[in-house]
Amino acid sequence: MRKLSVFFMGITASFLITLNGLPISKYTAKADLPTQVYVGGMSAGFTLQSGNVQVVGLCEVMTESGVLAPALKAGIRSGDKIIKVAGIRVKTIEELNDIIHKNSNKTIEIVFQRGDCEQSLSLTAVKDKISGRYKIGILARDSISGIGTVTYINAENGRFGSLGHSVINESKERLQISKGTVYECNIVGVNKGIRGKAGELKGMFMGDQTLGTAEKVCESGIFGQISQSFTVSELMKTVADSNDVIPGKAYIYSTVNGISPKKYEIEIVKVDKYNKDHKNYVIKIVDRELIAETGGIVQGMSGSPILQDGKLIGAVTHVFLNDPTRGYGIDIQTMLKE
After folding, report:
1. What is the pLDDT of residues 27-57, one digit of tens each?
2. Which of these, 88, 232, 285, 299, could form a disulfide with 325 (CB 3.0-4.6 Å)?
3. Whether residue 170 sits in one domain with residue 105
4. Separation CA 42–CA 45 (nearest Å)
5. Mean pLDDT, residues 98-104 taken together
6. Nearest CA to 221 among 69, 85, 44, 38?
7. Is 294 helix (H, G, I), strand (E, B) or coil?
8. Biggest alpha carbon distance in the chain?
9. How many domains does the chain have?
């Protein structure tokens, strides 16, 4: 098992860098919204391919001639997104390294994106004294990993929705994700939320237990196909319907310890069904057990399903930094449309 950072709540999202990714099938949209769904609430570990190679740092290369830094000398900066190397499109670090090694001792052109502008420069890779590989002296990433919560699974076709909000990096840029894999996740600890600072779940994803494949990332969350090996028989089946939501008692299902979701009482303080930012509900955690364990809403609980009168009506998305017992929720109809 490997430790993950969490998908932070709302616009303060950030991720742990990882350098691997797995293939998935092509996403197919469905026009009719499902009504019968399985309620989620289980934590999930997401590994998402970004579809490009981003420079996250520059480094020196130890060669037989001494310490050299080709990328730094040529003018590459942290944050640059490498598009082409030696005329070949690159999407992964493996592809980048292979092209560089095959063009050893040659001057190669690197096309990259910096901000909104596409630029190019030339450099020559150098041979690392220890590994024998040719390198240009960068630290890079081609994927991200994090923890979120599965909101629902379509009872008809096994498609799932999760998170409830967009995925952004530490620079607050919305990420374009090409594909990804979703793993079952074991929550092993919690940093409690306090006024002015969001808490977070600490989790380990179980790499040998695939929950599904992530196929689409948008403002409403992460969507994909549940694995055929995942058992839904232990999940509650209900109707997804938010037409009659009113302020008052409701419940969320969330996992803040181990792998099994639990039911916690909340209060819906405000309903704003047509909010353009998908902040359709203001919610307040009133369950004493959950408050004692987490302080309220913490990072990693994004996507926790909200139910009222036995129906799935939405998902938790944001936390109020000045009051971790309060936060926002997205309307389930918005997620189902994706």
Report:
1. 333 446 767 899 999 999 998 887 789 999 9
2. 285
3. no
4. 10
5. 91
6. 44
7. helix
8. 73
9. 2
